[in-house]
Amino acid sequence: MTTRARLAVTLKYASLTAGCLVAAVPLLVVFLASLKSEEELYGETPFAPPSNWFNLDNYRTAFEEGQMVDAFVNTTVILIISLIGTVLIGSMAAYAVSRFDFRGKRLTMFLFLLAALVPGVTTQVATFQVVTGLGLFNTRWAAIALFMGTDIISIYIFLQFLRGVPKSVDEAAMLDGATHWKIYRTIILPLLKPAIVTVVIVKGVAVYNEFYIPFLYMPSRDLGVVSTSLFRFQGPTGTQWEVISAGIVITVIPTLIVFLALQRYIYNGFARGATK
Amino acid sequence: MSRSRTGHPALKVAEPVGAAAPAARHQRVRRPLAERAGRRATPYLFIAAALVLLVVFTYVPVVSMFGYSLLDWDGLDPVSEFVGAGNYAELVTRPELFGVFTVSLYYFGGTIVQLAAALYFAVILSFKVKFRNFFKGVLFFPYLINGVAIGFIFLYVFKPDGVLDTLLGLLGVADKPLWLGDRSVINYSLTGVSIWRYFGLNLVLFLGAIQSIPAHLFEAAQMDGATRWQQFRHIIVPGIRPVIGLNLILGVSGALSVFEIPYVMTGGANGSATFVIQTVNTAFKYHKVGLASAMAVVLLALVLVVTWIQRRTIPDDTTELS
Asked: What are phi and psi of B259, to 5 degrees?
């Protein structure tokens, strides 16, 4: 290897290592902080290791005072219902559009396309009136309805996928006398499995991380989800960084587990569903 | 522009169903009348749920937002006053309302840095590298993290005498600014956080785009003795130019609607308020729904214009790479 080539290789790995340090160090120092006592945290540098690696006091405090158990229950309920709803509603709509020719189809598709461009946060000014008008304010249904109702990307993902499925597959079933509902249920839905995986991942991450919708529509403490409960850690009692750090770690761990378990699907999913 | 693309779903919709229609029509002739009516209702039944949700949670709000923007209304009072274009006039004449768009410039600058870094790492990772998946995973993971958690992580990092100050101290930097306290620094700090958060997505998108370049192009180039730089310049850049363009435009609309990071970290204090923060504060803190709606309408118009430019400048069939 020439000197120049060796230098290039060195630079390559040096820059990759530097990039990874920038990505990882903020997470690692927070993890260290979550294991420290208050005195330790303020007495030493942020990089000093904790005196006891198994000090879980801050996690206990975070779970108890931060109501993180409630938060995970609420998030899970909202996540499951809105994911099921999104998959069913989106796949049914995609089935209608890809397999039928009907009046108003072009207009419908145009409405979906246009809606995908509307930035969600700003229209909350007016969405708020709709949600309160429907009596959903301060209920989990506010978040569920909005997560299901504003999901246009998943319809596109299903639509895209269905275009690749030859129509002869369901036409054959129709000749056998199957109803459209039966074809959707027994043929289309199972065929859509890879697209469902994509939708569940992209949407699931978005719902788990969503902050403003639950913050705005579910102000009651008991309805806190992971994001809003964590947000309340920065309370009037002053900043207890060791407890906040534990809260951060509690929030990030499920994400990390899902990421490690589903890496390949996650990369593909985001590459496909990312433009929104 | 080929119409038969198999790529990205989001940006193109209406597609002629001509292929299916003749067969369907042919069948219809032989079916009894009642069944025909049922068949005609079927697609509407399948799309009904999606359409109702779309109308209730997107179109009703958007349309009523236009209406509210003409009112002087607190959002609660049954009584409101019609002020016509008054809110828009107020928006244009009060510089503190419109001026926050300058904050978007920081984030747009950040997008450029972010795209450049993502491109660099994507190119490196698409050639032979040890621990490739490890590097890719670490660099991508921040994108998946909860925004509130990211906000708090960086409040801790930026804290006076905190992580960043300690690191700079080790490097011998004595004079450290107040990262979130100094008005001339705060938007750089927050932009940095934004880069940290979204960089991973660009990386994965670029990596995917580079991998979809046919391998034989690289093989041929290598046989001709092309250097890595030449391969980058003449194969990779032209191959993924549409993706770069798309990400750049998405960066513009993203920069216009920045919200979560500054809202969580500073609440918009110290000159870090963005247009969206100001809009939601105007609506939900100061209860000026009319004015806030006018602001939302302006932002919506801007984003639509940017998207329109995107659709004009980036041909249809290339958006699939995104």
From this structure: -145, -60
Q: How many CB atoms lie within 10 A of CB A182?
A: 13
Give the residue from B64, B115, B153, B278 with the most A CB atoms within 10 Å of its CB, the best one to mutate: B153
Which H helix or E strand runs over B71? strand B71-72
> Is CATH 1.10.3720.10 the right assignment for the domain spanning B96-321?
yes
Q: Considering only alpha carbons, which residue of chain B is nearest residue A245?
A: B153
Higher-scoring residue by pLDDT: A117, B237:
B237
- Assigned token pair, B117: 């870094």
State the nearest Cα–Cα gap between A3 and chain B, in angstroms: 16
Which of B14, B53, B121 faces A19 most closely, judged by CB atoms? B121
Closest-CA residue of B relative to A33 is B156
Phi, psi of B129, deg, nearest 5: -140, 140
d(CA B159, CA A240): 13
Cβ atoms within 10 Å, residue A233: 23
Task: For residue B250, list chain A residues with Cβ-Cβ distance below 8 A.
Answer: 275
Mean pLDDT of the residues in chain A:
90
Q: A residues 64-83 near B, CB within 8 Å? A: none
Query: Please, which residues 245-264 of chain A have a Cβ atom closer than 8 Å to chain B?
Result: 245, 247-248, 251-252, 255-256, 258-259, 263
Report pLDDT digits (tens) over B35-73.
666 667 889 999 999 999 999 999 999 999 999 999 998
pLDDT in tens, B140-175: 999 999 999 999 999 999 999 899 999 999 999 888
Q: Does the ipTM exceed 0.90? A: yes
If one counts every other C-beta atom within 10 angstroms of the C-beta of residue A222, the result is 9
Assess B301–A contact: CB distance below 8 Å, yes or no.
no
Using a CB-CB distance cutoff of 8 angstroms, which residues of chain A are in contact with residue B253?
Answer: 119
Size of interface A-B (CB pairs under 8 A): 286
Distance from the A69 Cα atom to the nearest Cα atom in chain B, whole angstroms: 17
**What percent of chain B clears pLDDT 90, i.e. is strictly above it?**
54
Could you give all domains of chain A from N- to C-terminal order, each with its CATH number? 3-55 (no CATH), 58-273 (1.10.3720.10)
| Among chain B residues, CA nearest to A201 | B144
DSSP, res B143: G
